[in-house]
Design goal:
With 195 residues, the protein is mainly alpha-helical. It has four helices and two strands; from the N terminus they run αααββα. The longest helix is centred in the last third of the chain and has 93 residues, at 101-193.
Length: 195
Amino acid sequence: MVNIEKFLRHNKYIWVLIGLFVMVLVLSLRNPEKKQDSTMAAFFTVKEGPLRINVAESGVVKAREQEILRSELEGVTTILWVIEEGSRVNKGDLLVELDASRLEGRLVDQEIRVRNTEAGFINARENLDVVNNQGVSDLDGAELKARFAKQDLQKYLEGDYPKELKEAQNRIIVAEEEVRRAEEKRDWSKVLFGE
């Protein structure tokens, strides 16, 4: 008896057929026109034996709840494993396993590209810092040279130039005096030689 109860509890179709049978029986008892004919047909002889139910009807069986699963992967991939149809599942259970080797290879390639790009970015940033520091250093050096050049110009204009100009003017005066003396000496030499 326990096996029949367990069988009935787990087979929904049996319950549906029993329900249909009870419904037909109730409707036939309620219908007054067929009451006379159906009273004889409502009684059956009961005997012990296996319960056989045969239904000769066509139809479509649909699941009460269904989920449609679609792959969001790009391209074509191979299904390695699928859960057996009709299995009960819980949240988080694995339903399908796809071949991810191609995707894992692409992931590794992308990670390498990201690392190379990050390394290039760090290198470029360090080069920019070096160039900026070199630019600041060159600018500081140029400003220092310009300040020294201004100081040298001021020193030259205020000290060296007037001194050198004075010395040059004195040399010109001395050279002109020497020229004048040489001309006088020449002129006297001509007078002495009678020319």
